[in-house]
Input
Amino acid sequence: MAFLLALAACGPQKPVQTSGTVTSSGVALIGGPFQLVDQEGHPTDQRVLNGKWSAVFFGYTYCPDVCPTTLQTLAATKAKLGGAAKDLRIVFVSVDPERDTPAQMKAYLATPAFPQPTLGLTGSMEQVAAAAKAYRVYYQKQGSGEGYAVNHSAIIYLMDPQGKFDRPLAESLSPQEMAAQISEAMRTGPKAAS
Output
């Protein structure tokens, strides 16, 4: 499924003729403007991604497995990054704005096993839908009543210090593998703003 989501996130590709062979080039259409609210209740937009590398993950606080596991992996990844961890921001965007109020996000993200600090973002149904669309995130409410679930994609989006998509990070990666990919991006990609 991750392959299909990654494939669907790619923009139009323009064939390029070189030396009798055809190659393709393209830019992933992931990320862009959003208007959300952080866990302190402050309006926040895409500019919050500027200045540091950001690992952006969409999920929800009532998620029983994937979300807490991914946040724990991100905490372990930051530990593996050593001094470079200061240049990585973790951003958790809710796909369940009905239940994930700023106060709920703040309480959830204070869990000691999660990366500290983590920026939690939520908003109205429309704001969350717009952010999810910008990141090509799938999510769908399942069930009814208070105990409903939300099916959602589980890719972590590594964004560079200019807020542009660098690469996807599979939630199934180990902390060592994830740290290696982030370190490579930091070495070869745009530098954080000073």
Q: What stands out?
A: The CA atoms of residues 12 and 158 lie 21 Å apart. The longest strand covers residues 53-59.
